[in-house]
Design goal:
Blueprint: H1 3-29, H2 32-53, H3 59-76, H4 81-94, H5 104-118, H6 125-135, H7 141-148, H8 152-168, H9 181-200, E1 204-205, H10 211-227, H11 232-245, H12 271-286, H13 293-306, H14 315-328, H15 332-346, H16 348-356, H17 369-380, H18 384-397, E2 399-400, H19 401-416
Parallel strand pairs: 1-2
Helix pairs in contact: 1-2, 1-3, 1-5, 2-3, 3-4, 6-8, 6-9, 7-8, 9-10, 9-11, 10-11, 11-12, 11-13, 12-13, 13-14, 14-15, 15-16, 16-17, 17-18, 18-19
């Protein structure tokens, strides 16, 4: 095996196995930072040895054994050898490396602990996202920085500070107690969906989408659904992401320009992802999650997925679902989306009336989709000069270059129709 071949193989194995590896080590050493360092040391050993020896039959077990051995060596070098050896070393030395399929339940428990640790409320949202992508997604610091358009040192600093914050706060490596789980699960789901949304509609930069982030979030959601199969909102989130991801190929044109939902070629929608999403939605609803936030959003996405043509969309049902969503998860953005659905179901004048009620909402002051929606409704009403001003304002607020170009195009089109 050549060195480049070995490196590619190691990178592939790392992307697949790193979360399980770090999770297992964190359970043993009770420190996430130390666990990742041990995992990285094992990765270096693989890069050194696998080009000579070939890929082992069970790469994950090989990496775990190498990491455990490194942990025992480190403990033996410390002055407080006896105390540390009793706490950690004996367990590491006595445990055997698992064979393929061995200790599945334990691995699942470790992964679940890692999910809740990476999304612990002691960390900021930015730190939770960075740490989740690092230890659960297997992304490098460079990949995370590129995905979120921030300098690599900034991401590295966030991850380092996150590990220190967890250690300083004495955060236990465990699944929260049952009474704490709902609040903590909401944070976990929020982080995963934030990652997905950044991939689905990039907030800044030159690209309308970052598909790799969507794929990472979907993978994390699917893993979480396997770990917590009785939690309806986990399936609700997976359903929402599956259905939204099904539109990915249709959301951009030949030159990467955005294509809005009603203009998309629905033949390009991925029917496999739609079927998976609808199945996850059915699972969420069967578990009693019908009127929970992610499940309601998934139901809205399902209305679009089931419509073969834009004119077949059940906008009245969508409006009703948004109304239900506004009751369980009220926010100005939900109200704005509700107004869009009302406008589609009952006419642009009705929709505009609801949007105008949100104009002075502080939370939407710099939200570019407010003037964008208002411009669309004004254009449908033939008020093209006002629509032009709204599209221009929306373009000035967005930080995504593709979206800015689209909004400016709509402003020019409105101007051309102005008497």
């Amino acid at each position: 095996m050549t060195a480049p071949d070995a490196r590619r193989a190691v990178e592939a194995v790392w992307r697949i196995e790193s979360a399980r590896l770090i999770a297992g080590l964190a359970r043993m050493v009770r420190d996430l930072g130390t666990a990742e360092e041990l995992a990285q040391d094992a990765l270096v050993s693989a890069l050194e040895q696998w080009p000579r020896t070939g890929i082992p039959r069970n790469p994950g077990a090989w990496l775990m054994t190498a990491a455990k051995n490194r942990a025992v060596d480190g403990i033996r070098r410390r002055q407080n050898y006896q105390r540390k050896l009793e706490e950690v070393g004996r367990g590491l030395a006595e445990e055997h490396a698992p064979d393929a399929g061995d200790g599945v339940g334990e691995i699942d428990d470790d992964l679940l602990r890692l999910v809740f640790t990476a999304c612990h409320p002691v960390l900021s949202t930015e730190a939770q996202v960075a740490l989740t992508l690092r230890v659960l997604g297997g992304l490098t610091t460079e990949e995370i920085a590129r995905a979120f358009l921030v300098p690599e040192p900034t991401v590295a600093q966030r991850i380092t500070r996150a590990k220190k914050a967890l250690a300083k706060a004495g955060v236990p490596f465990e699944v929260p107690a049952e009474d704490q789980r709902p609040a903590r699960l909401a944070s976990v789901l929020g982080v995963i969906y934030l990652i997905f949304n950044e991939g689905y509609s990039a907030t800044a930069g030159d690209d309308w989408m970052r598909p790799e982030l969507c794929a990472d979030a979907l993978r994390l959601g699917r893993v979480l659904a396997g770990l917590m199969p009785r939690e309806p909102e986990v399936h609700g989130l997976v359903a929402l992401m599956e259905i939204q991801a099904s539109r990915s190929r249709a959301r951009t044109g030949p030159d990467g320009e955005p294509v809005l939902l009603l203009d998309q070629d629905r033949a390009k929608w991925d029917q496999l992802l739609i079927r998976r999403g609808l199945a996850a939605l059915e699972r969420a609803e069967s578990l009693g999650g019908t009127y929970r936030p992610y499940t309601l959003q998934a139901a809205i996405a399902a209305c679009h997925a089931r419509a073969r043509r834009p004119e077949d969309t059940d906008w009245t049902r969508i409006a009703g679902l948004y109304e239900a969503l506004s009751l369980v998860a009220p926010s100005p953005i939900v109200e704005l989306n509700h107004a869009v659905a009302i406008g589609m179901a009952f006419g642009p004048a009705v929709g505009l009336e609801l949007v105008d009620e949100l104009v002075d909402e502080p939370a939407l002051k710099d939200y570019h989709l407010l003037p964008s929606v208002r411009g669309d409704l004004l254009a449908k009403l033939g008020r093209h000069e006002e629509a032009k001003a709204e599209f221009e304002r929306a373009a000035s607020l967005t930080r995504n270059e593709r979206e800015r170009a689209l909004l400016l195009t709509r402003a020019r089109e409105s101007n051309a129709q102005t008497p």
